[in-house]
Amino acid sequence: MDGKAFRPDGKTSAVLIPPAFGLAGVNLHTWTGWGSVTYWNAFVANLEMHGKGNFYDPRLENADQFPVAAKAGLGHVINSVDLITPKLAALHFYQLSLSAPSAPQGSFDPEAAKRGRKIFNGTAKCATCHVPPLYTEPGWNLHAPDEVCVDSFQADRSPDRRYRTSPLGGLWTHAEGGFYHDGRFATLLDVVNHYDGCFSLGLTDRNKSDLVEFLKSLARERSDLYLRQARSAVAAPDAYK
Question: Which run of H or E residues covers position 143?
Answer without folding.
Answer: strand 142-143
